[in-house]
Amino acid sequence: MEVTNRYVVMRNHIDGTPQESDFELKTEALSLSIEPGKKELIVKNLYLSIDPYQLNRMKQKSSSQETTSFARAVKPSEAIDAYGVARVVASGIPAFKEDDLVAGLLTWGEYSIVKEGGLLNKVDNIGFPISHHVGVLAFSGLTAYAGFFEICKPKKGEKVFVSAASGSVGSLVGQYAKLFGCYVVGCASSQKKVDLLKQKLGFDEAFNYKEETDLKSTLKRYFPDGIDIYFDNVGAEMLEAAVENMNTFGRVAVCGVISEYTDKGRRAAPNMVDVIYKRITMQGFLAGDHMKVYKDFISDTVEHIQAGKLQVLEDISHGLESIPSAFVGLFRGDNIGKKMVQLADD
Amino acid sequence: MEVTNRYVVMRNHIDGTPQESDFELKTEALSLSIEPGKKELIVKNLYLSIDPYQLNRMKQKSSSQETTSFARAVKPSEAIDAYGVARVVASGIPAFKEDDLVAGLLTWGEYSIVKEGGLLNKVDNIGFPISHHVGVLAFSGLTAYAGFFEICKPKKGEKVFVSAASGSVGSLVGQYAKLFGCYVVGCASSQKKVDLLKQKLGFDEAFNYKEETDLKSTLKRYFPDGIDIYFDNVGAEMLEAAVENMNTFGRVAVCGVISEYTDKGRRAAPNMVDVIYKRITMQGFLAGDHMKVYKDFISDTVEHIQAGKLQVLEDISHGLESIPSAFVGLFRGDNIGKKMVQLADD
After folding, report:
1. Do B278 and A284 touch (CB under 8 A)?
2. Which residue from A85, A93, B157, B337 has the fewest beta carbons nearer than 10 Å?
3. Per its UniProt record, what SMART domains does this chain match (chains A, B) (predicted)?
4. pLDDT tens digits for range B26-58
5. Could you read off the pLDDT of B238-289 as tens digits, one per residue?
6. Does A278 sit within 8 Å of B284, measured CB to CB?
7. With respect to CATH, is domain B2-136+313-342 assigned 3.90.180.10?
8. Per the CB < 8 Å rule, is A63 touching B244?
9. What CATH number has the domain spanning B139-288?
């Protein structure tokens, strides 16, 4: 059987704020059968993850390229790989069979071909919506969990600040921190998000950073006794303001710097004298380095969701053609929670 | 017996590059006897430590003030406290007696009065010059030792970069790193210092940063396989260049940022995308938090010195009146090794 597979490509490298016109849809004829002896899978994509970090891979050149698969360069006109959940349509690999539900590195397309050795695992469907396997039970969740527990090394009662707090990772970090027994303040880009953080996610406080003129004073107001942990998703002035307001032995988990991704001249310049005198640690991390906590992450997270203690925020667009606008919208702060695109019904 | 005690004070707070004219000498009559019942010591200062960090305490206001005794504000016209070695002249504290050699927090003066509870310890003179108890066997040494072993967590064979490498701390970090089995490159501000690093201290390579126009390329040249550890004493562009050239899981010990002390607008703005993708840790620290390695520090250091494997660089000026120029000279890079002022013979 042959189908027409549609997929999204980048026209050229992107060095500033991405536009929908930076992308185009391509089509190709795809046979849904595998040649005998070929060790690969053909999968039909159900949900695809839309993540800010992908912009870094779309740039002309990054000094960090090739240091991790997360940073591997995307080439114009080629299929763009992305995390997602799919259904196996045809398998040339004994470990997988038709109709298996799989999660891992796919492409921004309706179908993906995954070679043997590709980063794909069978999904153990434990009664949650399939979309959960793209976000809260996948890398967004692990990033939040490992970042908070392994990098921030929290103690009960500590004061935690989370930026981009209504995003895929931030919304979980704040909730893990509350469940653990910390005082948590988040910032976001609209009053609607602020209300959600306080009313639905249980943050102690939240503020709309766009309404603030002096972030250092803002944080001083929300943390009169200082910040112990800053989970940074945005970089730039927010990081500087957080360092200024940190307590001794404060920790910064450097998870993302979305405010810098679209502007290569934009940088955080934290006061390093503060970093010394307050013995602050700033640590960059990637979830993939923390697979040793994977089991704990899954069991804790499943338990919290089942108990109704962890709210899962998903922001789902529909159809392949919505991928460019979904991606572009990340940098305008359009999404609330994990952004993904659904391509087909389960 | 009464003497005339001379001491150095600051005329006003100092917010830029310090000048000798920012200081003045004061004199006071001092009785060298202690009133009965008064729990204090009068000591005659022999060597006083001259350290860049003291400039931060002389500023109008630092957000880090009061977070540590190192950051306590100095007030104009008052005696400036500083680490040093002294001889007890009169004691009202049973644990000390006349002629004891003591080290700890003194003042930039010919005599100091130390109240009970002051940070003073008896020096166990183990056959080294007394000046060693101001630098290599005191906080400069502990800073280098704890910073390198506890913060940088080195592995044999790793590539280490040290800035201000001919300074009191840098010169020791580089040597500890060599003795431990690392590859070590240092930078300094003159050819004379560079020669010393390579010929006397055994650094693998060294360069004069003032002759370089693009520090990122310079470090790429000296570290074609990347930097694993950066021991930062200077901040600003050097920190940025080091982060750009770091390997995955690189560590930055943030020990000092002398290039920023004299210019509050000057800041390092390291690329945080690199920090994430390369999982870099940047950690500020103070030696005083690492007293648990003190015994190891002393025994290792003494052993290395006695074996002729660790060179001790001391840069000694003479007489109280030389304190302002000694201090001001730190920010011009005048000193080679530990800067101190000798006030009296042993």
Report:
1. yes
2. B157
3. PKS_ER
4. 999 999 999 999 999 999 999 999 999 999 889
5. 999 999 999 999 999 999 999 888 887 888 999 999 999 999 999 999 999 9
6. yes
7. yes
8. yes
9. 3.40.50.720
